[in-house]
Write a structure and sequence with these properties.
Number of domains: 4
GO molecular function: iron-sulfur cluster binding; metal ion binding; oxidoreductase activity
InterPro entries: AKG_HExxH, Aldolase_TIM, rSAM, rSAM_sf, rSAM_SPASM_FxsB, Sulphatase_maturase_rSAM
Strand order of the largest sheet: 1-2-3-4-5-6-7
Helix content: 40-55%
CATH superfamily of the largest domain: Aldolase class I
CATH class of the largest domain: Alpha Beta
Oligomer: single chain
CATH topology of the largest domain: TIM Barrel
Number of helices: 26
Number of strands: 24
Protein name: Radical SAM domain-containing protein
Distance between the termini: 80 Å
Pfam families: Radical_SAM
Keywords: Iron, Iron-sulfur, Metal-binding, S-adenosyl-L-methionine
Amino acid sequence: MLKMHSRCDLACDHCYVYEHADQSWRDRPAVVSDEVLELTAKRIAEHARTHRLDTVHVVLHGGEPLLAGRDKLRLAAQNLSTALSGLCALDLRIHTNGVTLDEEFCELFAEFDIKVGVSLDGHRAANDLHRRYRNGRSSHPQVLRAIDLLNSPRHRHLFAGLLCTVDLRNDPVTVYDALAELAPPRIDFLLPHATWDEPPLRPASGTSATPYGDWLLRVHDRWTAAGRPMGVRVLDSVLRTLRGASSLTESLGLDPVELAVIETDGAIEQADSLKTAYDGAPGTGMNVTANSLDEMAVHPGIRARQQGLDGLCETCRSCPVVRSCGGGLYAHRYNSADGTGGFMNPSVYCADLAHLITGIRDREDQRTPMPQLALDDGHLDEIAAGCGGSDAVRQLARHELSVNRELLAAVWRESTHDETGTAAWETLAVLDTDAPESVDAVLAHPYLRPWAQRALRGDAKAGRIAMRGVAELAAAALLRSGRAGGVTVPTHAGVLRLPTLGALVVGEATEARVTQASGESFTVRVEEREHTVGLKSAADPAWWARHRFDLPGWAVALEDTDPWRDAHGYPVRTRLSAAAAERWQQDLAAAWQWIRRELPAYAPGLAAGLSVVTPLRESSTGADISSAARDAFGAVGIARPETPQTLACLLVHEFQHVKLGALLDLMDLYDPTCEQLFYAPWRPDPRPLEGLLQGTYAHIAVVDYWRARMRTADGTGAREAEVRFARWREQTAEAVDTLLASGALTRPGERFVRAMGETVTARLSDPVSADALTEARETAADHKQRTAAQGS
């Protein structure tokens, strides 16, 4: 924490800097000097170099840091960026009251990627209890103006979140709603700083013994009912520590404190919260002019906060929720009468924290692990008819993402955690709060489920597969987020896998260190080598970037690097050459154009749910090969066919299987105990009920494809299309009747299959020539006869 200015333009009566025991601000310069900024940057850089840090987190703070002015803030950012360039990543933030934030400040912050946190205590009445100007005027309108600026499309990426101090006089739901309405990426609720010497405000006796715990639980319940739309640091920290992960705040959990505060005069101090204990409590006697951060790291005050359970009093060590509570914030334990130096006590909020933690734990125990996302009747009918619009398919995709999340949690729960896997899991958990869209993008990867299923087998290799996969997912999510940091990733078969991004050839190395360099590149340290990789660049021949094509209305990737893509029942192609990838792009563009023109009802759903095409090895006989894996939602495997029209057929055909597979994850359409086998007109062998259902549903698209081809083809092509259309519409209608007569469909299944039948029946009235109809029926009869002969 780097103090830019030691004064403030507000007079908040709960401020720990000015209104509590420590008054050292009075003797410090108002603005940090250029010399202190330069020395601070050098001290941070030498510490990062000594300990080979991947990332340094710096918060520009105060007082009110904006009072330092743009030139001083620019100098601080320049010094830090220059000192750490090529050494490690810099996560630079600023915390402000927001009252003077303007467009020019935001432009400066955008230049240096400085994330902005803003203090706001809720709606106007709540905020005005404390956060006023010296003349008593409200600061609320100015803060809302600042937040509107940060929420503008141009600056939204800078918005880090809101900080709110709890006041029991404010209704928690009203406060939460007021903050949530501003759509922050995160809210941080803070307990007001207090000690046993100066205890917090509490209601009169006879009311709740845990008012602060009650207050936060009401926030938790409102937040959960709203779908947890943003991170709430204190609540997320409780949830994380209950799962055995680390806390996101120093006020909870047993993680060691790693914070140094640099004051405007260069003094190196402990956390500002200690100012509430006694005058001089944060002091260390050190200064950047004479001392290193390594010296600060061994100061007794810092060491006391890095001992975990051993650094707590006996009451805390024996408490059942200590691993979540961690004894509370260090400053809140202070009691001048304890005879041990003041801090070997439970938190003054001990009962409140225990009530909050057990309340959240009990609520989580009662939650359904994986809520079912019900399709409404309209969406279900859309899918049953054979197509399914973009909204319906997105609902399926959201459910499949929830399934993947549950599988990932199961992998973590069932696996033995090594140090690399644990660090990666921590990164993934933090990103899930700070950049959930990046985590979702990686967890929606079609080949996550094959990996998870393999990791859950429990054999000798499963543990290594599990930890490697967690690290791969964490690294990919980090890179997609654009945030500073690094992840160590085990490699396999000479390759570093980064799901959804690509792969790096690393030779015999067993692990690689992936570090964010910028939004467009990253570095990979492999033993003594270092690669700087552009996400979309082929400049480094060791980097196999994923082939991603942005076609009009459809973004699709060719997957030729992920080892778990081998899930389609056919051999996959190895890494494509640039020329082969270009041919695929041309064919996909032409096939997509054909689908949009000739099969427009299928295009929106396909664009919403099909993100990956995995190239399969071509058949030696020239037969078309395609496949959809039941456990790889969003992907199809295809051997590149001769024409874009055939590729269009394979895409819509296989995506039918993808949609129906997701629907079967969501609801039961048939009795799974049914063991009867049924004739399938497109197979040489009888099929179980699900196989017949899948094939019938897929052939609705086949019928529509040949219907469209019949309209557009010439000569012999038109004749072939007419015969195939005539055959498949009748045989698909026959398969629908077989399904309905099976007696094994559930009530939703009957509704679904009847809707399928209506679509096919509508095609039976399309005119075809008598010759084509005859040929189609003869072909169908011959197929049925041969299938029956094989069965006998």
